[in-house]
């Protein structure tokens, strides 16, 4: 049971990071200045 929950949480985290990276790269592609990259609550993963 615990393995199932951990697997679900890890897969969900990976999917959220990929989703947010899509926003990041789309903004960069459109020439929008991206000051930080994050997912969930602070602290941010990248930025000032």
Automatic annotation (TrEMBL):
Taxonomy, superkingdom: Bacteria
Main subcellular location: membrane
Keyword list, A-Z: Hydrolase, Membrane, Metalloprotease, Protease, Transmembrane, Transmembrane helix, Zinc
Matches recorded under InterPro entries: Pept_M50_Zn (IPR004387), Peptidase_M50 (IPR008915)
Bilayer disposition of the protein: Multi-pass membrane protein
Cofactor: Zn(2+)
GO cellular component, one term: membrane
Subcellular location: Membrane
One Pfam family matching this protein: Peptidase_M50
Ranges of residues in domain Peptidase M50: 8-46
Example GO biological process: proteolysis
One GO MF term attached to the UniProt entry: metalloendopeptidase activity
Family membership: Belongs to the peptidase M50B family.
Protein's name in the database: Site-2 protease, Metallo peptidase, MEROPS family M50B
Native source organism of the sequence: Candidatus Roizmanbacteria bacterium GW2011_GWC2_41_7
Native organism taxonomy: Bacteria, Candidatus Roizmaniibacteriota
């Amino acid at each position: 049971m615990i393995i199932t929950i951990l697997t679900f949480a890890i897969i969900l985290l990976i999917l959220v990071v990929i989703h947010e990276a899509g926003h990041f790269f789309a903004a960069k592609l459109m020439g929008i200045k991206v000051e930080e990259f994050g997912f969930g609550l602070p602290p941010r993963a990248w930025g000032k």
